[in-house]
Amino acid sequence: MLRDIPPILSPDLLWSLRAMGHGDDIVIADANFPATALGARCHRLDGISATEVLEAVLRVLPLDSFVAEPALVMEVVGDAAAVPPVVEAFGRIVEATADNPAPLGRLERFAFYERARGAFAIVQTGESRLYGNIILKKGVIG
Amino acid sequence: MLRDIPPILSPDLLWSLRAMGHGDDIVIADANFPATALGARCHRLDGISATEVLEAVLRVLPLDSFVAEPALVMEVVGDAAAVPPVVEAFGRIVEATADNPAPLGRLERFAFYERARGAFAIVQTGESRLYGNIILKKGVIG
Amino acid sequence: MLRDIPPILSPDLLWSLRAMGHGDDIVIADANFPATALGARCHRLDGISATEVLEAVLRVLPLDSFVAEPALVMEVVGDAAAVPPVVEAFGRIVEATADNPAPLGRLERFAFYERARGAFAIVQTGESRLYGNIILKKGVIG
Amino acid sequence: MLRDIPPILSPDLLWSLRAMGHGDDIVIADANFPATALGARCHRLDGISATEVLEAVLRVLPLDSFVAEPALVMEVVGDAAAVPPVVEAFGRIVEATADNPAPLGRLERFAFYERARGAFAIVQTGESRLYGNIILKKGVIG
Amino acid sequence: MLRDIPPILSPDLLWSLRAMGHGDDIVIADANFPATALGARCHRLDGISATEVLEAVLRVLPLDSFVAEPALVMEVVGDAAAVPPVVEAFGRIVEATADNPAPLGRLERFAFYERARGAFAIVQTGESRLYGNIILKKGVIG
Amino acid sequence: MLRDIPPILSPDLLWSLRAMGHGDDIVIADANFPATALGARCHRLDGISATEVLEAVLRVLPLDSFVAEPALVMEVVGDAAAVPPVVEAFGRIVEATADNPAPLGRLERFAFYERARGAFAIVQTGESRLYGNIILKKGVIG
Amino acid sequence: MLRDIPPILSPDLLWSLRAMGHGDDIVIADANFPATALGARCHRLDGISATEVLEAVLRVLPLDSFVAEPALVMEVVGDAAAVPPVVEAFGRIVEATADNPAPLGRLERFAFYERARGAFAIVQTGESRLYGNIILKKGVIG
Amino acid sequence: MLRDIPPILSPDLLWSLRAMGHGDDIVIADANFPATALGARCHRLDGISATEVLEAVLRVLPLDSFVAEPALVMEVVGDAAAVPPVVEAFGRIVEATADNPAPLGRLERFAFYERARGAFAIVQTGESRLYGNIILKKGVIG
Amino acid sequence: MLRDIPPILSPDLLWSLRAMGHGDDIVIADANFPATALGARCHRLDGISATEVLEAVLRVLPLDSFVAEPALVMEVVGDAAAVPPVVEAFGRIVEATADNPAPLGRLERFAFYERARGAFAIVQTGESRLYGNIILKKGVIG
Amino acid sequence: MLRDIPPILSPDLLWSLRAMGHGDDIVIADANFPATALGARCHRLDGISATEVLEAVLRVLPLDSFVAEPALVMEVVGDAAAVPPVVEAFGRIVEATADNPAPLGRLERFAFYERARGAFAIVQTGESRLYGNIILKKGVIG
């Protein structure tokens, strides 16, 4: 454990967050997400909710201000307009914690997988609420 | 996630529990434990308490009945008789969950480290209560 | 061996089942299947029949309910309508054991190979009955 | 599968049997044996009994005739004179199948572990009978 | 060395033969063949003729009966109709030793290389006769 | 770069600081220190002074309060009582920045090397002042 | 440290500079550049400015005289004509230090990333000025 | 060193020459050639001229007689007809040393790089004369 | 294959012979020798006799003239004075082929194994004659 | 090649020289030295004399001034007082090129090997003069 750094940020996750550069994506994924199959770097946080992880990550990670939608969630299959509770909670955390808050963008399920495949890393949480997945694009510190 | 297997048992931890044989030790360690330095196989469960991990592990792992003390905790430095609350909780969980319950044995801090160095694996939890460390010796299924 | 987990699920196979996510495929293949050539992760269960493995796997793996055919078998070469005894047995096991039973889908031999190439893992059993191959798509636990 | 070679001999196990030389040991171990912790090369045959494996191995492996006890079993803890049924079966298979049959030698439990640690390979079977462990020393083909 | 298994089948070659499945190819190549450049798995048998290797391989490997030409040789450059003595010898060995004998098919030199690139393994022999190369497709054991 | 974390803490160094546990040592070494030869994990910060690194490290790393001398410097060869300016600066930084400040302990040159050999990691800085080396023992966060 | 070689050139960076050949590119990047994601070889110089690194690199690296623009910078997003102070400084250093000085070429942000992806190596500096990125093409020593 | 084998043929270079087969290319490159970037196998002979290396290589390597131009050099950029002194020397060495001498073929600079990228190996010599690069195609020993 | 180098010297064996230095040992072992277990570098020449290998090796390897017994064979177990035919043949080959011929020394079986464990490499031949093992110490080329 | 750095210093050798710290040893060895067997890091400079390498190395490497004999040569076997010509040349080069010249120390052959075993790296040159071996201890740059 370290002083003033959220304790759920594991050594490997902290490494990825620090090594990422401007424009690199990180995915925070729920417990059912095919993270191992999609991502070269997969950091597990079994048993932790995606909302706790999102808050801890945004405390240290700058969000990109060069793009309109630096944070993206997955659309509900068969109901693109739906906003599941976990997604609503994501929105509130981004608003409250990010250095550059922005409304959440959306991607269809397989487009989300495709985007995740090119991400710098995927964090597999223990989130049991369906659609508890979010992609963050790293910004700069000037 | 799998049916009827506690979800905090990660793929790597499940691998170790299944690959261990009779007499192999596993350490469930608190967030301050020098797990990376001591153990060849270190499974992280950041953010999860040691008591939750102990309960999940004992639901699948048989405890050794060939030895008197198949479960061992660390003595408080400077007060060998003390029983910290987390250790008391360990005792109750072993009693309630193990297939072969047994009273907890004790090891002095550096003897505990030495024993951990030879363990099959160490699980580094997010336990923030000091002395939240326990060693389990695997038993047989006959 | 572990408590209440089928003993033929080896450490590596258990790892794959646990690490797989929603939509990932696993192949249970007979003794003649070109598993090593097709699959990055090949788990061997020499000497065990494919039906025993299917039953053990379905006791822990949720089957996908997002698609119509979450379980697929290989068509007999030259007789697409044939239902070999081992395939009939597969159908009964899926019906009896899966959390989301569904009728078996079918793939032509080389289409089956192509699909297997992208699977998360292939389990090579000792099944000596020809056409003793089945693909399972993992579902979610909500 | 290959012609005239017992199908439960997996690729890795066949590799070890062929690569072993005069005097190298191989251990056939039961499902509770701490094989992963003790052996650099661990071949799993989950679900197969130790007696089936012993018979298949002895069909291809010459037994050493330079030593008095080329095959060794583990003594029952607390009853060194006992002969468990699985050990009795081992004796009959060695007698019937080995090129150089010899009576079984015995080692105390921890001496058996120590010997296994230096073996060329350990085969972890699915043997559920306790004490289903045997060490074989490879002989020469002149 | 093992009982009743041809001694020139090395540990690695035996591994490949056993791990191959239905439809996988293996190449037995002469001493001038670019085996290292073409093949991911290259087994060397320096000093052994290709005909000796072919006979040893066919004693354990089933030949595919699902295709018309399970065994293929390389056409002489500039004289496609020629049958070099080593190829004639290949034909006699396939006839005498294979479980499913079949007449030899032929491939132009660069088509042979391309096919070899996708093979499961290449055995580089010490064969000094030019065109001493043959591809075998593995069959099934029912 | 990350929010509120000193930018000279590189991804690898941050990984080590986070993965270290209670009682593990980290060495901050000058540009002439034989870090590669002594340490399994060597993190380079070429061009940065040891004092800058010490301050950045102590902002996140807790110092051990279980031992009398959690911070140790190297004695000047041939003048054990000397206090080089860089060591004086180390003392002021520990006093000002550590969570558990303590006076600096001392080790003779080769004893310092021996201790460094067992450290969790060594940070090789660009410090050009001789004797710009310090060992820190990690504490706990309760 | 070595005699007469700039001390901020780390062992790995020196390796890359020496191993590069005619026409290979090296990128000197600022602290926000996505170096780990883009480059197979990433050398970190955290805490050092890009201008210091450029000067040290050009003291040992010949610049290519076969092309018109052997040094390339990134255009400001949304203002292609702008010349940020750090780029102005790059120009002066190339002029003063290179063996074959040449005016700086320019690439649009994503074209710069694409070019960087094929570079021999990327040096991630601690440069905090935005647009502190430059690509150098190695020349020959005749 | 070995009896009757040119001592500048290093262990790795000798390995490549021996492992190459009919039709595989090897590049002997000058000190400015981008060998590390282009070649999977790069053997360094720093300080040795390309002509010395060519002579040593041709003493053991058969040259291909199946193609018209088994040896290829790089055209001078901007003067395709030029024959630099080092190329003239290459011609004399091929004539005097090769088992199957042939006139040198030529490739434009970038075509030469492209061909080198597919070579079995590249030998980076210390040749300081520009255009001191040659590709050799291995022949057969009948 | 290479010009004037014995074709049974494989790429790996040639690498070892060339990389060995003054005083390094190489073992030429029969088909029953425990080569894989004893040696870090094991080169297989299945199917080739030890005498053929010895002759090929001595054509390129200088024998040490700094020691009295640069070539050592294994004593017959139980009959130290015996000279098996293969050993007699070894003696004649050393006499006829070595640059520095010397009478063969002898080592008891387990002392031979111990010496082999420290050798630079072991060549496992297909030698079927018992006691077909010899150790050679490399000399210098002045 | 790099500006003002001796071209025979290869990328790997330059890496070692730069990564070495105060007190680390490097060995420059002749062509017969058992470098691969003794050293974890072995840099080859086949075909280059040891004296050329010594001069190039000393142009960049500081020699240790903390010990009396920072440069050590090997005694002639059987004539400890002899000074072979290559050693005489070593002495002159150290005198002329080192930053801290010192008379050469001496070690008996096997003591020299033992010291080399602990060195940071060994450079295997093509030196054909016997006893062309020297150990250098790196100094500091203050």
UniProtKB/TrEMBL annotation, chains A, B, C, D, E, F, G, H, I, J:
InterPro entries: RbsD-like_sf, RbsD/FucU_mutarotase, RbsD_FucU. SUPFAM superfamilies: RbsD-like. GO terms for biological process: fucose metabolic process. Keywords: Isomerase. It catalyses: alpha-L-fucose = beta-L-fucose; beta-D-ribopyranose = beta-D-ribofuranose. Gene3D superfamilies: RbsD-like domain. GO terms for molecular function: D-ribose pyranase activity; fucose binding; L-fucose mutarotase activity. This is RbsD/FucU transport protein family. It comes from Limimaricola cinnabarinus LL-001.
